[in-house]
Amino acid sequence: MRTRVVAGALGALALTGATLVATPEAGLTSRADAAGPLYPADCEEDESSSEFGGARISQTYADLFSKGAPAGRYLDSFTPQGLGVWENWQGGSGTEDLLLVGMHYFDDPATSGDDEVSHRSRLYGMTTSGTVRGFATLPIGAHTGGVKVHDGWVYVQKSQTEILRYSVERVREAFTNPSRRKLGPGRDTAPVVGASFFDIDGGYLYAGRHDENVRGEMRRYAIKPSGDLELDESWGPLEIPTKAQGVLVMADTFVFSTSLGRGNRGNVYVVQRTYGVGEEFTQAPYRCFQSVAMIQELVSWNGVTYLLNESGSAEFATDDRIHNIRNLHVASTDRLRSLVW
Ligand SMILES: [Ca+2]
Questions:
Q1: Ligand 1: distance of its center to the CA of 186 in Å?
Q2: Which of 140, 154, 266, 284 sits CB 3.0–4.6 Å from 272 for a disulfide?
Q3: What percent of the chain has pLDDT over 90?
Q4: What tens digit of pLDDT does each residue of 223-266 get?
Q5: Looking at the predicted structure, is the pLDDT value of residue 115 above 60?
Q6: How remote is the CA of residue 10 from the centroid of ligand 1, in Å?
């Protein structure tokens, strides 16, 4: 496994000749992104591992990640997006912990012209070994790109401007009483900006914007005692990688999952939190390596990083799908972090 830390723009440019096709007038960020969503110029190219089947991936991803619990439920009608952890879901302490998966609906394009906006979305909970304990229905069209639990609330991304919020008691009721499955709009929560996915760390919710063609950005919100959100105007926005689908926030490190399309490998970025507003994230020491396709949100819990994948959805069951991942992939959070420290 390579251990080199890529620091700075020179390292990024040296990684691939793809930057040579950039337009001369473009700035560094544009040049780096001009390679397109398949292989951003700031990511190592390596296809030396056949682990997980399908298209070959980087040895770094194969070394760091392994197959975790099955996450194959509801894939015939729904597409997984968000992943969180709900500790002691039955209340009290020392009870069972669940992984929460958010999914949006999709229609068969052969019979319907629209996708994900015609049916209620879904939130389900499963044990860390993959046994489903219950599900709830979310509002129609909720993308569910982010799911996290914090201080008595379950937060779910609905759109880039709206994060839904439900009390854990209400979600428990939905999981255990089929007549109460519809969660509805939840509690009023302040609008957000560019929130495609999010993590919660240290009392703040960090929400990143997915962008297919250029680098996105991330803002953070203080979580008030009421559970509502308030934009932290003193922080960010910080630049994040192109086609980001999820973030893991640590005190000194970010991990981004990025992907786009069933035919393209994803990329995992591990980045020191040593860059600021207006700076490229590649100014900080970082590592990027190629992953399986269609990686989605991720969450760290008890030292383990869990990574969700949408490629198993029937929505993507065509010949050009290069991976069909129906399990979580898991890695040591410390090992991920230590790539840049
Ligand atoms: Ca997503």
A1: 21
A2: 284
A3: 81
A4: 999 999 999 999 999 999 999 999 999 999 999 999 999 999 99
A5: yes
A6: 30
Domain residue ranges in the chain: 44-337
Of all helices (H) and strands (E), which one includes residue 203? Answer: none
Instruction: For residue 25, give Cα distances in angstroms to 28, 31, 36, 255, 306.
Output: 10, 9, 17, 31, 41
* CA–centroid distance, residue 120 to ligand 1 (Å): 17
For position 47, what pLDDT does the model report?
Answer: 94
Å from CA of 293 to ligand 1 middle: 12
pLDDT at 92 (0 to 100): 84
Ligand 1: distance of its center to the CA of 226 in Å? Answer: 27
Class in CATH terms, 44-337? mainly beta
What pLDDT score was predicted for residue 309?
A: 98
Q: Which backbone phi and psi does 28 adopt, to 5 degrees? A: -60, -45
> How far is 261 from 197, CA to CA, in rounded Å?
17
- Reference 336, options 293, 294, 286; nearest CA is 286
- Please state, in angstroms and rounded to a whole number, the distance separating the CA atoms of residues 241 and 188: 31
One-letter amino acid of 23: T
Please tell me the pTM assigned to this model.
0.88
Block residue for tokens 């009608």 = 77
